[in-house]
Amino acid sequence: MGEADLITRTRTSLKPSARTVAKTSAKALAKTCCALAAVTLSLLLQPCYAEDAGYPSKPVQIVVPFPPGGSADLVGRILADKVGAAFGQQVVIINRPGAAGMIGTQSVAAALPDGYTLALPSVGSLIIAPALAASRPYAALTDFAPVTLVAKVAEATMVSAKAGIKSFPELIAAARANPGKLSYGSTGVGSIPHLATELLKKETGIDMVHVPYTGGATSLSDLLTGRIQLMINDLPAYLPHIRSGALVALAINGPRRSDLLPDVPTTAEFGYPTIVSENWFGLLAPAHTPPAIVARINRAFVAALADPGVKAELGRSGVLAVGEPVDDFRAFLGAEDKRWNGIIQAVHIQ
């Protein structure tokens, strides 16, 4: 064998096969792809974890879209101290009333989605009022990030003692015997008292005259004097007058009796399970708030609402503390949005 042949054979024996090279390259490429995927995933997840870990780093504002002293304001202030302690930051209540609660609620929809501006609206300001507005300012299901259902307040069907009506069946009988003669008050067209009574009229087949007021104080005064005969509204505000005998609570407009008046039956017990008009308050952040921050807020508020002291304090004011997972509240909002919009269309309110 010549020297040239020996060199050629040696080089050939040392050269790896094409299959070996391809296999080695494929393994290297796979390892590189896995490494790149891991790095990319960590980079995508890092902001969420960072936002969660660093939140909150400054005071948090809760906008209550009603004047001080109401149920939403009470709930917000009771929770603010408890949640503030858990956050290690001050939680500030901002009262921003106007336009049936839409001004304050809309201000949160337009706020930065960073978790530092939250809303505590009622079903009226979040769902009902926008549905009746000439131009809907916001939508509950798309312009907000739901956090948790905070609380519920029982609504009661009440009559003036001067009306001489002692029970819910008596009310239905009197209204049927005198169509268009009984009158009921509300806190304005499209308010919960208005829609709740229209729902009662629809489900029982009775006819009553609507007398809208600009607020609760004037309507209560006329109810006490007998100028109007009936009102459906938040039970706690009317409780002193019920206990004094000036008003008669005929039914609780919800699925359960109220601990404030355990002897008063529900509308369902009278055979009308569809007459439900519970008021409620929910906590929401602006849409696109990072899920990690929403989850952090949810944990703090759910824990506060489960605290026995908070539950007892709210209960003394006739407020039922709730607190639930984000997904449950989102489903609840969808159901309520559908139900109240259906009521509005059914009774032809504009």
Any overview of this molecule?
Strand 1, helix 3 and strand 2 (91-95) form a beta-alpha-beta unit. The chain is an alpha/beta fold and 350 residues long. The strands form 3 sheets. It has a 5-stranded mixed sheet. The protein has a 3-stranded parallel sheet with strand order 2-1-3, sandwiched between helices. A 3-stranded antiparallel sheet has the order 10-4-11, sandwiched between helices. The protein folds into 2 domains: 58-154 and 279-346, 3-Layer(aba) Sandwich (D-Maltodextrin-Binding Protein, domain 2), CATH 3.40.190; 157-270, Periplasmic binding protein-like II (D-Maltodextrin-Binding Protein, domain 2, 3-Layer(aba) Sandwich). The model is unreliable at 6-26 and 32-51 (pLDDT under 50). The longest helix has 37 residues, at 18-54. The protein has helices at 3-14, 18-54, 71-87, 102-109, 123-132, 168-177, 192-204, 216-225, 235-244, 291-306, 308-316, 326-346; strands spanning 60-64, 91-95, 117-119, 144-153, 155-160, 183-186, 209-212, 230-234, 247-252, 279-286, 319-321. The protein is globular, with a radius of gyration of 30 Å. It contains 12 helices and 11 strands.
